[in-house]
Write a structure and sequence with these properties.
- This protein is of the alpha/beta class.
- The chain has a single domain, classed as Rossmann fold.
- The chain is about 30% helix and about 20% strand.
- It has a seven-stranded parallel β-sheet with strand order 1-10-9-6-2-3-5. A three-stranded antiparallel β-sheet has the order 4-8-7.
- Strand 7 and strand 8 form a beta hairpin.
- It starts with a strand and ends with a helix.
- The protein binds 6-phosphogluconic acid (6PG).
Length: about 260
């Protein structure tokens, strides 16, 4: 397992989104050059909204007709619900770019049960990535967020979802959650070529320190360690407030520090 992570702290959400756009251009450009196809999984939550808006407004040719968009996780609600990640991503991004309908792969939340929705999503992934038994999809890019409690995707601390090592998508039904959810699993996340965390707000600072300083190895986000891929932690100043100087220096690659303010 490599430890190829870059931690970059930006003055504000705007600069953070601009850097994420640069990474999107670079990663999608390479995937399309190499394979004529770019597969990305997107998260919901509030933090990426500004990024999705900017991405939608870009004038460059991002080859949306060669881009396949999946969801990292989803609430088991209709697409027109305020709680729907797909609904948000559609509104802020997908409705505003020229992506063919067949290249958008939401979690089908119209299934009879949460388990059926997870199974269906897993089937969609297997079909798209042409997987054999025991294989995991290799996304070019997975975009993640982190919750105050250290969760990422819909993988929550202390749950059995963290030890799942066969399934691609699972049903998440916790009493404390308002909604039932469907989530990609850790083996899928850790098989990605690139992972970008977008993290903003002071309420994330404590969990982030624990995750990045390796103090709390059991937190879901601490377990995001792709075998061969790169991980970018893009933070705004308030999310990075408790990170020690040592951590910033030791994990930033050359060039990264000049961007960290
Ligand atoms: C979701 C996400 C979840 C999110 C974090 C951070 O659908 O809510 O899957 O993992 O990324 O909770 O959310 P914020 O960006 O809103 O802080």
């Amino acid at each position: 397992m490599n430890d190829h992570r870059e931690i970059l702290i930006f003055e504000n959400g705007d600069e953070l989104s601009d850097f994420a756009l640069e990474k999107w251009r670079e990663i999608s450009g390479k995937a399309i050059k190499d394979r004529e196809s770019f597969a990305v999984a997107l998260s919901g939550g509030k933090t990426p909204v500004g990024f999705y808006r900017k991405l939608a407004g870009l004038q460059d040719d991002l080859s949306w007709n060669k881009t396949d968009v999946f969801l990292v996780d989803e609430r088991f609600v209709p697409f027109d619900s305020d709680e729907s990640n797909y609904g948000m991503i559609k509104d802020k991004l997908l409705n505003r770019v020229r992506i063919p309908a067949g290249k958008v792969h939401p979690v089908s939340t119209g299934e009879d049960s949460l388990q059926a929705a997870a199974k269906k999503y897993e089937g969609d992934l297997k079909e798209f990535f042409k997987l054999n038994v025991g294989e995991f999809p290799e996304f070019d890019l997975i975009m993640l967020g982190i919750g105050e409690d250290g969760h990422t995707a819909s993988l929550f601390p202390g749950t059995s979802s963290l030890t799942e090592n066969e399934r691609l998508a699972i049903a998440v039904d916790l009493n404390k959650l308002k909604n039932k959810r469907i989530s990609l699993t850790l083996p899928v996340i850790n098989n990605a070529k690139n992972i970008i965390f977008l993290i903003s707000g002071h309420n994330k600072a404590k969990a982030l320190r624990e995750i990045l300083e390796g103090k709390e190895k059991l937190l879901p986000a601490s377990r995001v360690k792709p075998g061969k891929g790169r991980v970018f932690f893009l933070l705004d100043k308030s999310a990075g407030a408790y990170l020690s100087h040592l951590i910033k220096v030791s994990h930033c690659l050359e060039g990264g520090l000049s961007r960290a303010k």
